[in-house]
Amino acid sequence: MRDADEQQAGERQLRELLERTVPVLPAPADRMRQVHKRVRTRSRRRRALAATVVSAAAVALFHSPLVQPLQSQVAAPPSEHRIALAGGALRLDVPDGWYAREQAGPPDTEGVLVANRPVTATPSCLGTPARDGYPCASLPRLAEGEAVISFSRSEERDRGIVDTDTEVEPSPYPAPGERCRALGGDQEWARPALVSFRPGVGETVFPFSVRVCLNGASATTLTEVREIVIGASYDDAATSAPGSEGGEDGWDRSGYDR
């Protein structure tokens, strides 16, 4: 018992001696500022790491099969244009971004223009015959990638009858004609044909030709032109009786520019 007391007393004396000989160093004056700096640094590193992980996950998710279908934009369906033309109605399926306008006031329209830019009418344009190509194009010049399609009367009856349901591809000219070049076109396509409609009793034939002037047309534009041209149809007045659709004279003009 005595030995234990002596040991504890010796340890206490040694501890007191060490406390007297080893000086107590004061804390640095900016200790708290340094602590806060280290905390902020660690926080920034954690946020940066978390952002990297989230970004990587977002990239992986964006390219995953689950999200890929969302990247495809659904194209707007073509709108049907029904335009009074030579006592009947020309029907066109016009893609989004294309515009249609008649070349004279209905019901005596001589032709119809379709372009992938707005087509405006001018006073001098109305009533102008369309037999010479693009007399009423109302386009100073075609910009790069633009095209104009002219649907007009044709006197070329000897080329045969092309039924409405028959697809007739437009074919390119070796070089654009004078009027197409005046519009800035670098290539011209044409589809002379007769579009016919059989109303059930006999046969009504409308002489019909198509010319296309293009400037630097892309593959997409050429595809759209083809779809517009081969999808065009003409309904004779016998099956489009006035009053059956649309306005006062029976023509539905809601689908094209005025």
Q: What general form does the structure show? A: rod-shaped
Portion of residues within helices: 25-40%
H/E series, N to C?
HHHEEEEEEEHEEHE
Give the beta-strand count: 10
Question: Domains counted in the coordinates: how many?
Answer: 2
What integer is the average pLDDT? Answer: 63
Total count of helical runs of at least 4 residues: 5
Keywords: Membrane, Transmembrane, Transmembrane helix
Descriptive notes:
The structure is a single chain. With 258 residues, this protein is of the alpha+beta class. The chain has two domains: 68 residues, no CATH class; 160 residues, no CATH class. It contains five helices and ten strands, in the order αααβββββββαββαβ. The strands form two sheets. Strands 3, 4, 5, 6, 7, 8 and 9 form a seven-stranded mixed sheet that branches. Strands 1-2-10 form a three-stranded antiparallel sheet, covered by helices on one side. β1 and β2 form a beta hairpin. The longest helix is centred in the N-terminal third of the chain and has 32 residues. The radius of gyration is 40 Å and the shape is rod-shaped.
Describe the secondary structure blueprint for this structure.
Blueprint: H1 2-21, H2 31-62, H3 68-71, E1 79-85, E2 88-94, E3 99-102, E4 111-115, E5 147-153, E6 162-163, E7 171-172, H4 178-182, E8 187-200, E9 202-214, H5 219-230, E10 233-235
Parallel strand pairs: 6-8
Antiparallel strand pairs: 1-2, 2-10, 3-4, 4-5, 5-9, 7-8, 8-9
